Amino acid sequence: MYAGLQELGVANGEDLKETLTNCTEPLKAIEQFQTENGVLLPSLQYALPFLDLHGTPRLEFHQSVFDELREKLLERVSAIALEGKVEERYKKLEDLLEKSFSLVKMPSIQPVVMCVMKHLPKVPEKKLKLVMADKDLYKACAVEVKRQIWQDNQALFGDEVSPLLKQYILEKENILFSNDISFLQNFFSPSPKTRRQGEVVQKLTQMIGKNVKLYDMVLQFLRTLFLRTRNVHYCTLRAELLMSLHDLEISEICTVDPCHKFTWCLDACIREKFVDNKRARELQGFLDGVKKGQEQVLGDLSMILCDPFAINTLALSTIRHLQDLVGQDTLPRESPDLLLLLRMLSLGQGAWDMIDSQVFKEPKMEAELITRFLPLLMSFVVDDHTFTVDQKLPSEEKGPIPYPSTVPEAFTKFLQENRIACEIGLYYILHITKQRNKNAFLRLLPALVETFSDLAFSDIFLHLLTGNLTLLSDEFALEEFCTSLFDGFFLTACSRKENVHRHVLRLLLHLHHKVAPAKLESLQKALEPTKQSGEAVKELYNQLSEKLELRKPSPAEVTEPPSMELPLPTVPTPASR
């Protein structure tokens, strides 16, 4: 409590204890100690007895004076940090720190010492080491001081950042598995600026400040974790962090990050959920502007394009372009904007391979993706238009055109073997589901059972699909629809993929009242958790069981009504007479 006072020649509690132990007249010794160490103001000698008359303890008086002086001192330190020439102000602060640092462990003086260190751009290394070695001091010091400690201690900085990164991933997963299913509000609904206000992004932004070295460390953590886990949410955080610093106009970092302008432009596209012609040209300019010898920047650009929010925007824009091309009778290979979208999708989807291999080169686009797969998707759009028009014709003019029910083998093969084709194909299926196009959905659903890297069973796709399926809620009463969706798709993966099990239970929690009772009963049996199932699955299953139990009619309702038929009188047969 009194640490450091002796070094400054100020008496403390231990000195008083020693004086009282060795003196013959304790009262005189106390009076002398008060005179020597009290507030040396002549006028105060007359005021103190007045306070005594009011029953105000001397401790309370001295404490209030001390608190007031400390506040004035804190204000003065903050003022010194802003006035005069830079060299002079920092010299004053350094001198003040030298004089006061011995009191840093004294709780009442500590805030002043910490304030002095906070305003020093470079705290002497010796003092930084002393702060770092003491847990309580380290915890008490300002983030401005911690930055100076962290920039030379990557492991310590990693310990501070790690819980935040875990929290960030958990928050994203909680959104994907939320029980609130809606096509209006989903994972991609919040705007980029809203997302950047999240607790983790704001804390990391504050921890980094204007320190380029700390920013580079965080980026390195994100790259390492992305490589280790393949979790694309780290890519989202990489983009959000840069744009958060952009919002605060931290030019010290934004000007040295070669991805800044590209990310800024892409952020505007994500906000609109569409890449327009003007921004497409800007993005292309950034990609074409990567000079020889600077190819490493492609690794960072690919990570930013791997952000699910970027993929979502690029895929939605691709589907929209394809629809426009159908109306213009134009082939995909003749659309530069469409080819750029595919180029960026390819770069984003190849992020992990590029960073892992350290071969910074844009992935080569497969010609068949453009010449065969995209025209195939366009033919699906034409099939839908043809069928819709045919249905609107008067009955006498209708042709015998049933809706195509088979999936072209080429479509299934592309979804299995080509990552970009698979991504676009899945977004097309989300698009037709959102349009309530049951025929098209049931036609293409079998192709989702086997896809590239099981993308059709990824959390983001299933989150979006379950939301869009609420638009087809009335179809859940039909046996054929439920059999195709559950038996033909979901249940094929439930036993081997727990996330699929969770998404199916989420969907049924929302739409169980629409499903036919017999089908619901068989689904309940099929979805029963095993011993290996996680707590989340068991919890969802219990919630579903409770809801279904509440829907069952009570025994009183089930009892059969008394028979209204009267018994027939027995009539003797002629033979018995």
From TrEMBL:
GO cellular component: NELF complex
Pfam family, one: COBRA1
Entry's Gene Ontology BP terms: negative regulation of transcription elongation by RNA polymerase II
Region of interest (Disordered), ranges: 551-577
InterPro entries in alphabetical order: COBRA1
Top-level lineage group: Eukaryota
Protein name, entry field: NELFB factor
Gene source species: Myiagra hebetior
Organism lineage: Eukaryota, Metazoa, Chordata, Craniata, Vertebrata
The encoding gene: Nelfb
